[in-house]
Amino acid sequence: MADPSGRRPRHHPAVNDVLSTLADASAALADVQRRLDLEFRASYPDRVNPAKLVARVKRVQEEVAALKEICRDLLTQKQELIDRIHMSLVAQRGTTQRLLAASGLPLLSDADEAAHNSLNEVIDEWNAHVSPITGRPLCLFSFAWVCVMMLAGDSWRSGNNRW
Known about the structure:
Layout: H1 13-43, H2 50-103, H3 110-134, H4 140-152, H5 155-158
Helix pairs in contact: 2-3
């Protein structure tokens, strides 16, 4: 326990000896470090100091590891956003097709289909590139949507569905 008067805490004499030895060792190590720094400064130009280079390399390695983790988190968040946007676009496209079919207007044009297919290709390429990095599986919504469309057959294109 610390003494309220601000004096050093009282320990068993053996503990005091260990603390004294550790304090002496710490002072000796600080002196060795100071002497090595002086020797390196005298032997090498400031930018080539091996001790500073080693310290900088260690610092950079730690920063790279932290940046890797931040990038992985960012990619995961970006993937989640892309999945949500893709889900929303697919749902909106389905609704648009149903409304067009129900109103008797012509269905989506070939240009619209080409744009949709191009978007799906870009998303698939993104998923293939990012999935191994983030460790997340590819968008499960796409798989589920394909299954629903296969079960619905062509009725969703002709407007014969009641979804």
